[in-house]
Design goal:
This protein has helices spanning 2-11, 17-26, 28-33, 41-50, 52-67. It has 68 residues and is mostly helical. Helix 2 (17-26) packs across helix 4 (41-50). The protein is globular and about 35 Å long.
Length: 68
C-alpha cells in the first residue's frame, strides 16, 4: 500500500512525508489508496530510506512503461 501511495504522491508532486501524511487525511484519492488509514510520516520516511534502491528501480520501470 505504501509503495502505491508513494508512486501516486510523486505523480501529483507531493514528495514530503509530512505532506503525504496530511493528504492521507484530506485528499480523497490518497484516502482510497491507503484504505482510509493514515500512515505516520515517520513510517513513510523510514520505508523510503530502507528500500531506496528497490523503490528507485520500481519507479524507473513505471517511467519506462509510461514512455512506451
Amino acid at each position: 500500500m505504501v509503495v502505491t501511495l508513494l508512486a501516486y504522491a510523486y505523480a501529483v508532486g507531493e514528495r514530503s512525508a509530512r505532506g503525504i501524511e496530511r493528504r492521507c487525511r484530506e485528499d480523497i484519492a490518497f484516502r482510497v489508496i491507503c484504505a482510509n488509514a493514515t500512515p505516520d510520516h515517520a513510517t513513510i520516511a523510514r520505508l523510503r530510506a530502507r528500500h531506496e534502491r528497490a523503490l528507485a528501480a520500481t519507479f524507473t520501470q513505471v517511467l519506462a512503461l509510461c514512455a512506451q
